[in-house]
Structure formats: C-alpha cells, structure tokens
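We give this protein:

***
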Amino acid sequence: MGSVENAAEIVEVDSDEDTDFSDDGNCFDSGQEDDVEVLEPLGVVKQEIVVEVNEPVVYNNSKYFKKRKIDSLQDQGNPPSKVLLLDGPESQLVKIEVNPHDFTIKQESEAESQSEDARLVTKVELNPDDLKVELNPDEITSELNPLDPTIKEETESENIKVELELDNVEVTVKREAIDGSKQERLLAKFNSIRSWAYTRFGDDIKNGIRNIFGDNVKFRVLTYNILAQSSLEKVNHPFSKRPDHLLTWDFRLQGLMREIGSLNPDIICLQEVEFSDLTTVNQDVAGFLAFKGFSYKGRRRSGSKTDGCAIFYKTERFECDAFELVNFKHEELLSLSGNSVGVICRLRPVQAARRLVVGTVHLHFGRDKDVTRLAQIALFLAELDKMCGSGGDGGGSCILAGDFNLEPYTDVHRLIVKGKLSYGGLPCSGGKYPFELFPPQLGLSGRLRWNKNSWNRDQKGCGSFSHEFGFRSVYQYREERNLYQGFAPPESEVTAYQGCWRALDHIFYSTLPSQWEYNSHDGRVEKHLKLLSKWRLPSGPQMEGLGGLPSALAPSDHLPLAADFLFLTR
C-alpha cells in the first residue's frame, strides 16, 4: 500500500474524453355458432349456462372483481367447483364449469317465467391445447345484472387478470397498463443512454488499480434546474401542449425524488427551487432532502419571483464553515438589472482540513441578454475568488455548477474555461459589448477581484476580463475545440429545451497550471480536485424519441448533470 503522498501524485487526466453515444391467438367466443347443436327451448326467455365439473377449477379474478358473491350451485357429494361468470345478452348470467375428461360444456337456459325443467342444452367440444386465451383489453367489458343483489363489483381499470389452472392447462386473461409498460421501456432506454463515462484515473480506481487512501474524499455533485412550479401556474406557460398530469407538482415531485434518490449525490446544486421566504426552501423539497441527511444554504430571487438557488450537502460528509448569498440585481447598473441569484458555500470534509468551495448560479434568461450574463458571471467569479482566498489553506479547489443559460461556444463560456476574454467591441445580441461594463467605483478589477480600497488602471475601459481558476468543463459537448473555431457539431449533447435543444447547464472544476504543457491539452493539470466520471448526456433526437421535456421520465425542462470527484485533502 502506498502513502498519501503517492495518492496525491499529479495525474494528467483529460476530462474531454469521448462522450459520444453509439447510435448505439385464438379467441374464445361464447357466441360462436360453429359446431353447436341447439335444442329448441320451451318458451325460454332467460338463458343460464351451466357446466358440470368433477374436479375443482382454480380461478382467480380478484384483481378485477373483488368480493363477488354468487349463490353456490354445486352437486351434493362433489368437491366445491369454481365459477367463472361471463357476460351474456341482456340479463343473462353465465356459469361455467369444466370437465377435465371430455371438455364438454353444457349450456342450460332457464326463463324467469318457466320452471327449472324448461332448458336449452348446447354441447361444445374444446381442445385442451386451445385453452390459452388472450383478449383485447379494449374488448373487456363488464355489464352485470343490476337486479341481482348477490353480486358486488369493484373494478380496477389498470389491471385485469383471470387465471384458470387445470393440471397443465392455464387460461389467462390479462390487461396490462399499456402506458406504464411503455414508460418502463423508455426509462430503461433512457438509463442506457445516460450511462457513466470514466476518466483514466477514475477507471483505475473503479477497477482497483489505484486506491483511495487516508482522508481523501470521493464525492458526487449533482446540478439540476428543477423548473419552478410557479412558472407552470402562469396562464401562458411554454408547456401548455404537454399533458396536464405531467405538469402537476405532485407528479413532478415524485420524479425529482426518484432521480435524486437513484443518483445518491453528496452535494446538490438546485436552480428554480421554490422558497417559502427569502432563505427557506419549499418544505416538500427541503423535507425530502433533510430525510436523506442534507442541510442547505439558499436564496430566493428578488422581486416577485418565488424561486431561487440552493446548495444542499450531506452533513455526515461535509460541514459548511462559510457561505455567500449573491444577489445580482443592482438598480444603478443597467447590466445588472436582472433578478438572478447565486449561492457559494465553503465546505470542509468531516475529519479533514482542506476546504472545497462550491458555487451555483442561475444566470439571466434571454437570447438578447449577453451583456447581462457577462456582468453576472464576472461578479460571481469575483465572489468565488474572495471565498477561495479567505480559506486560509491556499484555497483554489472550486466547483462551479448551475444553469448558465449559455451554450459552450459563447463568449461567456469562453471566459470561464479559457480564463480570459477581450469582450470590448465584440458583437453580441443587440449590438456590441461596451468597453466599460462596470463603473470604477464598484471596485471590480479586470482580473475579477474586489479592490474597493484602491483604483487600478485596469478597472476603467479595459474591455477584458481574466481569472486564475483554470476551470475545465466536465462536459465537453463534442468537438468543443472546433466550437471555439466556429464549427458547431451536427448533433451535440443537450441539457434543456427552449424552443430547440440546447446545452445550457454546466459543471466546471478548477485546475492548476501545468509545468509540463505537453502532458495537457489546455496547459492545466488536476491536483487536489480530480474528475473521476460524469453522467453522460443525450442528444436532441434521442430526447425526442424519449418523449421530450418535461415528461414522465424527466420532470423538468432541464436535465440533471452529475459528476464524481476525488478531493485530495493533503
């Protein structure tokens, strides 16, 4: 076994590994007239069909008719026979008993106005091999005689199952919940698409080639825009064409709990989660996650909005020793006029000293809001830098996740992953970026650090931003390098639907400069924070085939993103 120092040895792990997906009756009809010999009845008005039996027949129809009571008609001295009640015309009651030897069915008809001696007898020869019956669910109906007080009916519309077992002969009539069966198949397909992709280092740990030593912590991060229910209660919400039951909160909450429970994350970044007040998350979500062992920090959006962002963390694994609730709205700045918010938590693993900074953000929505999103992310990165620098242990280990409302080939995304952006004069939605995004008195430098006590020349009219986080994107969204050159992939991974399929949600993690750039595609190297695996994303056509968003599989208009990390605490 190696030492902790060996475990902390720098391993060149490239998170842009390929995440592509390989495109990759016989019917029983009691009304048949063939082979039927009919004896003329004497004044028959009502028919009652009786089949004599010498052996008991097991018949189970409890899933469709519960507690049905029928007058017992059986011969003295014979074992009790089972009765199968079929529908007949008008008020006809049908009683069937099977003779296992000659499989002869006798029909006896009796009129209410006649005595029991007036009968109609019909013989039908049955082949034992033909006693396998499957009925069309749409043709299964139940019309009982309302005048018969001995029959009580309780229907279950989802499943009808009738089993008749005689030696090796089984008659089954089964009605499945077709929609439920279809959803199970789609869920299995969805899970096969959203498999886990491992980095080289993560694959070594999974296969036991490498081990996790000492206080080093393996953990899972989940980020999810869960779609605020208040947005669905608007008259003209964008999902009015979706089935109503898919949009109810009770239905969607069950789906959210299923997804979160199956992923079993240690840190959860939520966007568009409902709040009951400024910092209190809706009890349905908070209560469920509290039961799972989570605590949280969160903030509601400003104005009339009732949703916001929150970071949940498992208390048995992490402690929060500092947090910041970021409000992006500044009335005096046009570029910060949106009501978006963000949350930053500095977490310390239990029984470890090194801190991990986690931030989640929901940037302003709108295709014409490029300037606003650039201002918001600049402000948020400055707050992240302040939190990392105040940790007292060198800081630097940081995860940034959320709904950025921007795609991977945009200017703001380039600032995050490339560490710099000369935005002044660049074309954007609605015109061009200004050369001065913030006034000097705000105290935010071009290096995205707060410097309110002094003024630097890079604070005024520089038209550029830079930072030193060295963020890498967990999701590469296929051919990301070509995206920076202006070539969009033909079929990329997606995270949300907003009129078209787009990649708007991201997870970034910090790295350090590499001393051997030939070992790294971006001149960076993972040290204290190592990516182990990521939950693959589907493409737009794949999601169309699974029912789109929101659906019974995915209760939000965004997909959840998840990744596993190893945090080296020494």
Residues 370-389 form the longest helix (20 residues). The chain has three domains: 4-17+199-419+467-567, 26-185, 420-466. Confidence is low (pLDDT under 50) at residues 1-59, 61-126, 139-177, 483-488.
